[in-house]
Amino acid sequence: MAGTLTTAMVLSAGLGTRMAQAANGLPKPLVALGGKALIDHALDRLAEAGVARAVVNVHYKADLIERHLQRRRVPAIEISDERAALLDTGGGVKKALPSLGPGPFLIHNADSVWIEGVGSNLARLAGAWDEARMDCLMLLAPASASHGYQGRGDFALESDGRIRRRVEQELVPFAFTGVSVAHPRLFAASPDGAFSLNLVWSQAIAAGRAYGVRMDGVWMHVGSPDALAEAERCLSGVLRD
After folding, report:
1. Residue 218 CB partners (closer than 8 Å, separation 6+)
2. Considering only CA atoms, which of 164, 178, 171 is closest in space to residue 208?
3. What is the pLDDT, as a whole number, of residue 240?
4. Which residue, among 147, 158, 149, 132, has the nearest Cα to 213 in the 3D structure?
5. β-pairing, 53-58 with 36-37?
6. Angle at 222 between CA 226 and CA 33, to 5 degrees
7. How far apart are CA 91 and CA 128, in angstroms?
8. Degrees (nearest 5) of the Cα angle 62, 6, 165?
C-alpha cells in the first residue's frame, strides 16, 4: 500500500444492539463469521494491505475486546479507551487523532467484510488518494449487489469522482462500505464530544473535497443476525467453489 497509509482506525466501540440475539453475550466485533471474529476479518485485511498499526476504540464490553486483541502482533494494536463515554463514530476518531498521526489514515468499521474481486480494494483506495484534492475518500459498493444492506443507497458518484448524498425518495447506486481514508484536517471544524462522521463528511461534500472509489468484489454489512447468516452463506458458497 502507499507508504502514507500505514495507520488505521478500527471502529469497535458501538453497542451492537441489533446483533445481540446472535452474539451470545459477546460485543459485536467478537462475533464469529466463518470461524473468525469480525474484528479479525478487518485487522487481517489491513495487515495484508501493509497497515502496520491500528488504533481500536472500545466501550461496550471493552475488557473482552482488549483481551482478544492481546494475541495479535500485526498490525500493532493501540487501544483508544471510550469506557467513560461513547463518542459515536466521529467523536471516536477525533479522540484518537493524536495516536493516528499527522497524515492520512484508514477508517474501517469492525462489521464491514467483503470478498475481493480483482486485486485489493484497500490498495485501490490508497492508490486513488490525492491529498491535495481530498479530505476523505470512501470505498463504495454497488447497493444492489451488497449483502446485509437494505437502504436506497447512500451516495452517487459524480464523473470527477466526487460524491453526493442521496436526496429524499431518490435511489442512488452506491452504499458506503464503512471503509474510508481520512486526513486529520477533516476534523478541524468538528465539535468536542460525541458526533457522527456524517457531520464532517457533509462539510467535506459541501467543500468539494469528499470523493469515492467503487469497490471490486462482494460487500457484506454484518450488522444483524439475519445479515450474519447471509454472510455465512455467502462465504460458504465461495469456499465450496
Report:
1. 114, 115, 117, 145, 146, 147, 234
2. 164
3. 41
4. 158
5. unpaired
6. 90
7. 26
8. 75
Contacts by 227-235 with C-beta closer than 8 Å and gap 24+? 227/147, 227/148, 228/19, 228/22, 228/31, 228/33, 230/147, 230/148, 231/33, 231/34, 231/113, 231/147, 231/148, 232/33, 232/34, 234/115, 234/147, 235/33, 235/34, 235/115
- The per-residue DSSP string of 131-150 comes to TTT-SEEEEEEEGGG-BS--
Contact 5, 53 (CB under 8 A): no
Grid cell locating 97: 487523532
Q: Where does 101-224 have alpha helices with state H?
A: 121-128, 197-206
DSSP three-state, residue 124: helix
pTM over 0.85: yes
Residue 4 is predicted with a pLDDT of 66
The cell for 93 is 476518531
Grid cell 495479535 in the structure block, residue: 72
Residues 147 and 218 sit within 8 Å (Cβ to Cβ): yes
The answer to whether 221 touches 227, Cβ cutoff 8 Å, is: yes
Amino acid 175 reads: A
Angle at 196 between CA 195 and CA 198, to 5 degrees: 135
In which residue ranges of the chain is pLDDT below 70?
1-4, 20-23, 238-241
